[in-house]
Amino acid sequence: MNWPIKRRNGNGSSSNGHIIEMAGITKVYDTGKIKVEALRGIDLRVGKGEFVAVVGPSGSGKSTLLNLVGCLDTPSDGEYRLGGEAVAGLDRDQLADVRNRRVGFVFQNFNLLPQLTALENVEMPLMFGGVGRRERRRRALGQLEQVGLADRVEHRPTELSGGQMQRVAIARALAMEPDIILADEPTGNLDTGSGSDVMSLLGALSEQGRTLVVVTHDQHLARRAHRVVEIRDGVIVNDAPAGR
Amino acid sequence: MGTAMNRRDLTVSWSLFVRASSLQRKRAVLTVAAIAWGTVAILMLLAFGEGLGRQMMRGRLGMGENLAVWWPGETSKVWQGLPTGRPIRPRIDDIEYLRQRLPNERVVGEIHNWQTPFSWARTSRNVLVVGTNAEYGEIRHHFAREGGRFFNTRDEAEKRRVAFFGDELAREVFGDIDPVGQVVDLGGSPFLVIGVLQEKLQMGNYSGPDSAHIVIPITTFAAVFGRQGLSNVVVKVARPELMPEALERFSEALAARFRFDPSDQEVMQVWDTAEGARIMDNIMLGLEIFLGIIGGLTLLIGGIGVANIMYAVVKEKTREIGVQMALGAHRGWITGPFVLQGLAYTLLGGLVGLVIATIIIVLLGLVPVEGNEALEFLGKPTLSWEIAAVTALVLGSIGILAGYFPARRAASIDPAETLRYE
Ligand SMILES: Nc1ncnc2c1ncn2[C@@H]1O[C@H](COP(=O)(O)OP(=O)(O)OP(=O)(O)O)[C@@H](O)[C@H]1O
Ligand SMILES: [Mg+2]
Which residues pair with B234 in a beta bridge? Predict the structure, then answer.
């Protein structure tokens, strides 16, 4: 495999500069009667600062892969190191800590907590990370400013547009300054206008040197990535630099 | 897992609780009301039980504790060649004999003189006069009102003409005048009134209530009325369970002295008030357990209500809980607020219930007991520390359980599963 961008060793990456190192990863969903082999042997490395787009037909295993990368779920087999740390054998609370420190999630349907304000939503991971009240507020406000929502901090999700909600979600994903941002079809629920806003925002984050893995059907978004990984039936069938 | 609760766990749980608890108001109100109702029910039931118990106890104490009364009868069994139908007639000097044979019990004899002519100033009427031993005062709870006394062994030994009045009789005869120190005429002899019975609640009695008779030393009685034969004998034991054995020795002593079959029921007509006490104790215990169970079940139903509401909340918030887990929430932080909520609702309901029950009990306390038959029998509902402690304990456990099970469900939520986009 070739890596389009080699980066310096940074915090949270292994000695060879990879944040994600997956080898022989499989995922089998056992629903009693039927077993679904969602992933069948995935080898994937993502370096620090890379912007990877994951594409593939529906049901090919993109979301499953992203969940494993984000430690929301554990693989059936194979080896996985996130930021140089083997995650096999960690219990649920330890995985929660890993997610909190290393991973920022952005979902297709935003998944903001409806009763909380934008600010409180962004504060949530900081609270779980043990950040004190004042610092929490300061950092959450900073992130909301970054995504251009400084004037919406006290709004609740229902008072925001789809694009604004997704930007709050991105601010929340950034709050703990994680090693990696994972987004599953972040523009899937947005109209073209707010979709491209979110795309530019993700592009800007990449330009700041952040590591992103984004599942998308969107050609425009995929084109902003450095690298496109294509999945079919649970295996990677193509892994190449994005043809701009 | 495995990580001990630290300050961060507590603060995170607490902030999640504070955020969550301000949410479903309507549900919270319903739940609190259910628990409050259960608490009122259990408190009222237990309080009435307690009041009834106290009333019973007071009534029982009125006559004296752990007593048995024996009325002599006629023989109904042939014994050592002696015929049936032979009356047994114990006399004053037999009391000393019985006391020797029953050294651990206390024995007094009584002689009754009905329809004794009585006069004082312009009042005259017929009264029941009881001649008895000095120990009767203590055994039969003839405690004197302030300013007076019951007669003592010296009065008895010296055959003094002193009289102790039942309070009701004293009120009727003397009105507002202090009876102590007055000289009255009893069966043609002058008697000095030395004491009046303290008002007491008497439930059981023989030969009429204590409040209506006059008690004099048995020796004086014999001298004035010329009678030696005892109407009845009273035996007192230290504890109720000692009574059967004491009565056995009592019968044997009498049978030996008067020569009759100790198993002769006709001679041995005994009222064992301690037996009543033993039964009453069991009834009261049964009543309390019964009322407690009813109240407890009511609370349990309230607790199930809390748990159900919390289950609904867990179900409704599954996705939010999944999101929180994705963002790094530990399972304990998710369960903490649920347990706290269960406890908070239950305890709040308990507090509301306690206030309502207290108000009801205070209001009932204002209703006069006199002339109200139901209250006179039931006694007033009474709240005790024991009742409060038991209720708090039950409420606390119900609250924790009502939160715990839904919380466990919340903790078992799989974030990957719930966040799958449909
Ligand atoms: N929890 C689960 N239980 C059983 N099967 C599952 C589960 N999650 C995913 N699958 C199955 O695994 C396969 C991969 O699913 P996945 O959600 O990863 O696909 P995807 O590439 O994200 O599809 P889409 O583009 O539609 O989101 C599918 O066949 C799906 O039905
Ligand atoms: Mg998907």
Answer: B69, B108
